[in-house]
Amino acid sequence: MATTPSDDSATPITVLGLGAMGSAIARTFLDRGHPVTVWNRTAAKAVPLAEAGAATAATAAEAAAASPLVVACLLDHEAAEEVLADVGGAAAGKVLVNLTSGSPAQAREAARWAGEHGAEYIDGGIMADPPDLGTPHAHFSFSGSRAAFDAHEATLRELGTGTYYGADAGLASVEFMAQVATAYELLIGFLHTLRLVRAEGADPAEFADRVADSVADDYPALLRGIGKAVRDGAFPPDMGPLSVQAALMDDLIDHRRSLGVDTTRMREVKHLMDRRIADGHGDEGFSGLFPVLGDGS
Ligand code: NDP
Questions:
Q1: If you measure from the C-alpha of residue 22 to the centroid of ligand 1, how many angstroms do you get, rounded to a whole number?
Q2: Torsion angle of alpha carbons 87, 92, 94, 99, nearest 10°?
Q3: pLDDT of 3 above 70
Q4: How far is CA 21 from the centre of its chain?
Q5: I want to staple 141 with a disulfide (CB 3.0 to 4.6 A). Which of 51, 54, 125, 177 is the partner?
Q6: Cβ(20) to ligand 1 under 6 A?
Q7: In b/e form, how buried is each residue of 111-123, taking b as 16+ CB within 10 angstroms?
């Protein structure tokens, strides 16, 4: 991670899309000394950046023509498609870095579009809030053209901590989608549990403090162990054997039900545990549920 100007701090950069994230990207590059050209569908959002020294362009094509490195950060794939269609032939000879969130398939489609228009393509996923841009707390996944990434790695690292996952343009999105999905899957369980905590009269903020400590202490090793178990297909008794864990499930479900808290996920866990135990795997741990996930039965 570089928070100081890189060797190629003079590389001119165009930023297409000046929402919360696009504006933070443009401002970070301006702060690092790059000549920056900006364009946004709603022109008023370019004003603060122009006041900070950015050049503004009247069209996306004019903006793209101004720099060898073109960064797009639009709301979604459809918006990016629309803007890139307007860029059209101005993409030729450019390196297009698309930081718009989307699926791996959408990233590969954008890479195809870039190839057809004579541009090198790098896809990126942003795992950060706009105020974190330019700090090590902003995490990026990158994939796509290796040559283009090598040429502009130092510049891209000015935005935050970045990892390159390979030449397949979809790989950055694989990482991004998995990181985001993990957060949502974990946090919906946490939110449901806070309903239970509050219904019992305990302080949700104080409870969250304690969970934050236990997450920091216990979860890194647990997550790494589960990842290794899934990769190896061998499931040690993490969190204890399923036969012991399952004995608690009815109490957890009844507790939730008695307080009017949703039991969907907890019943799913119990169902999976019961199946795995019935299949003779009661000595495995929580990771042992992996083989019975997602087969729809
Ligand atoms: P905003 O809603 O703040 O900005 C959206 C941008 O997309 C605006 O520039 C908007 O233009 C433009 N846009 C939307 N539709 C179109 C269209 N049809 N044609 C042209 N331009 C369009 O979103 P963010 O900046 O926050 O997010 C941008 C990307 O960054 C998203 O993919 C998001 O998932 C990702 N991201 C954002 C994070 C965040 O915390 N904000 C965190 C991680 C990733 P206009 O101003 O004219 O409406």
A1: 7
A2: 40
A3: no
A4: 13
A5: 125
A6: yes
A7: bebbeebebbbbb
Q: Which of 75, 86, 180 to mutate to test the pocket of ligand 1 (most atoms within 8 A of CB)?
A: 75
Distance (Å) from CA 74 to ligand 1 centroid:
4
Instruction: HSE, CB side, 13 Å, CA atoms: give it for residue 12.
Output: 13
* C-beta of 18 in contact with ligand 1 (< 6 A): yes
- 4: pLDDT confidence band, cut at 50, 70 and 90? very low
For the 203-292 domain, the top CATH level (class) is mainly alpha
Assigned fold of 13-167: Rossmann fold (3.40.50)
The Cα angle at residue 239 between residues 193 and 216, in degrees rounded to 5: 65
What mean pLDDT, rounded, does the chain reach?
A: 95
pLDDT exceeds cutoff 70 at 229: yes
The structural domains of the chain, with segments of one domain joined by +, span 13-167, 203-292
**How confident is residue 294, by pLDDT bands cut at 50, 70 and 90?**
confident
